[in-house]
Amino acid sequence: MTHLTADRRERHQPLLPADHLRTALDLAEAGVPVLPLRVGKVPYGNCRACAKNACGGRPNMKTPGPCTCPAPCHAWAAATTDLRTINSGAWSQAWRDAAAVAYHPGGAGLTVVDLDHPAAIAWAVQTLPRTQTVATTRGQHWIYRGTMRSVNGVRDGVDIKSAMSYARWLGPGTGISATLPDAARALAVKEPSTAGTARQAIAVPAPAGGAECPHRMPAYLNRGIAMAEQRITEARSAIHTTVYRTFVAVLSAHGRCGCLTEAHITRLFAAAQARGETPRHCTDAWTNARTRLGL
User: Which of 2, 35, 85, 106 could form a disulfide bond with 79, CB atoms 3.0-4.6 angstroms apart?
Assistant: First the structure.
């Protein structure tokens, strides 16, 4: 993605619809997770159960819905480098009808600073180091090596697309990608809270009535996490599904009171990865579980 050879650059000039699948396969082979987009920059679902947003994803399927498929199958979470999935029957019609190819920047280890108008570009020229630059309909994509949280509207005409987001593939552009600068990371940093509370891995509403949550009892919470770890560890098949359903169960019990810490989530992810899950699959499953529960 960041260092395409000259022959690849020639092959990724503006596309006709018939070229989308070939482009997607080229990008996947280069390690860039891809997905097809409909008119309006909206993703397709790549399993029949979730076609036309049947599983209840967020508007226009831009956020994964609470489906129970073995793996995330729509929105940014559907982006994949698996050639079998890209060539699958579930996506075959999508590629024929696709208006564009999209990719998951965070999955490729990249961050896209999306500049929507000339004033935003002028700001970037004064603020950020020059990097790989791709022309868009209204402005430019500045592509950096490194990942961060995706945030829209960090300033007028500037969006950040990296983790849990997708961007249109508009060709390799010009230049060589630079390392993601601190100035870009700072755009997504909110002012620290003055409440003095410890940073938590998930932000959820406090329990009604302000009573002390019983989950804060260390023995209660630790037992729940240990049981979840055991369920994942002892699974002999359908690992993807087991991890997802376990995450749903944990969040159902402990997700609304703010008791879960990064340490607890790290334990769950470690158990899943010990069974062969990738960090991306863990993140996708956790995100889908939270979405299903409305967290």
Answer: 35
